[in-house]
Amino acid sequence: MLDHMITSNKGLEEEFQNRFGDDWMKKKEFIKDLIDGNNHKEKGTARSYMYEIVANKRNEIDVDKMDYFARDCHGLGMKSSFDHLRFISQCRVMFLRDDETTIAVRDKEEYNLYELFHTRIGLFRRAYYHNVTKAVELMEKVISVKMSEAWDHPEVYEKLTDRIFDEILVNKEPKLKTAQKLINNVYKRKLYSLVDESSPKEKIEVEKELIEKRLTKAKLREEDFSVQKVTYSYGMGSDNPITSVYFYKKDNDTDCFRRTNPKKTSLFLPETFQEEILRIYSKNENNKNNENTISLLKEETTKCFRILQLDSVNKAEIESSPGIVNRRRRETL
User: Fold this and answer.
1) What's the average model confidence in pLDDT over 153-157?
2) Quick check: 185 and 160 in contact, CB under 8 A?
3) Of the candidates 203, 168, 202, the residue with the CA atom closest to the CA atom of residue 184
4) Parallel, antiparallel, or unpaired: how do β-strands 246-249 and 252-258 relate?
5) CATH code (residue 211)
6) What's the CA gap between 102 and 95, in Å, rounded?
7) What total of structural domains would you count in the chain?
8) CA pair distance 252, 49, nearest whole angstrom
9) Which of 61, 116, 166, 293 is the most exposed place for a label (fewest CB within 10 A)?
């Protein structure tokens, strides 16, 4: 995208040349590497810390996250307990060894870092990966399946705004009728409905495939359902990113160290850093014409969960319902 911006804006390349001289191409590649977090060229040098500012591959703590956390918490009316200004004020550039630098933070900020990742999980649960958000995303994928290839063509990608859906709606091309119906359904909140979800402890890809096969065998079409995998994490899979953070002490700001065993800090800290969830959605509108298909999908989903020994979120809600408990008491009596 940076290359496209330079070539498509007249005079910008000349500005780069005037500012950086003959090395302007190297400077441009340097900027791209900073954005990508690719430090292979500077690894083991005194400038290696610079690759931890925008896209930190060492521990996933960078200004990119801090920026969208502050923006989205404000937009969603959520309060973030992570103070990015305080965190930045406590950072220092320190030497790991004679020829390599990193960004270290005061040891007392460790709890503040856990709040950063706690905020991340909260945003993903309440917004980015909320079941309604993902339902809309599934519908938009059907509408814009070809648009997903646009990122490979910057001149097309830069034109992809929310306006594209309005342009589809007013287009009279017969081939766009399905897309127009889906867009109208999104605007009218006639969304794909969540049938059930579960959080397998392992082998989630295998279980996702087994559920899809079983639902297909039960005379359900691919147009009737979608099995979706959702992953919540601290950003480094099942690993704790805090163990990759370097700290320094107040009385020694020349040496840095890592917390290899967070339990020595506190027993209240989390032990699990990734959760994967399987969700089953019904793609059919909830009306009389689709009653049988939706009922079949619900029944088969329940069977799949029982066979695979997966805990059902919906079942847990039903089991704990006072009405169900009272009914069972009457049946027992």
Assistant:
1) 77
2) no
3) 168
4) antiparallel
5) 3.30.70.2760
6) 6
7) 1
8) 20
9) 166
Task: Give helix 291-307 / helix 204-217 axis angle, nearest 10°.
Answer: 140
* Mean pLDDT on 24-39: 87
Q: Find tokens 């040098």 and name the residue.
A: 45
Q: Is residue 29 part of a domain?
A: no
Indicate whether 205 belongs to any domain.
yes
Structural domain including 294 reads: 192-238+273-333
C-beta separation of 81 from 119 below 8 A: yes
CA gap 15, 21 in Å, rounded: 10
Query: What is the total residue count of the chain?
Result: 333
pLDDT at 315: 64
d(CA 279, CA 310): 12
pTM of the model: 0.82
For 183, other C-beta atoms within 10 Å of its C-beta total 19
Note the pLDDT of residue 68.
94
In a domain, residue 301? The reply is yes
Q: What is residue 127's DSSP assignment?
A: I
Residue 307 falls within a domain, yes or no? yes
Per-residue pLDDT tens digits for 239-291: 999 999 999 999 998 899 998 887 777 778 888 999 999 999 999 988 888 99
**Distance separating alpha carbons of residues 32 and 52, to the nearest angstrom:** 13
Strand partners, 92: 104
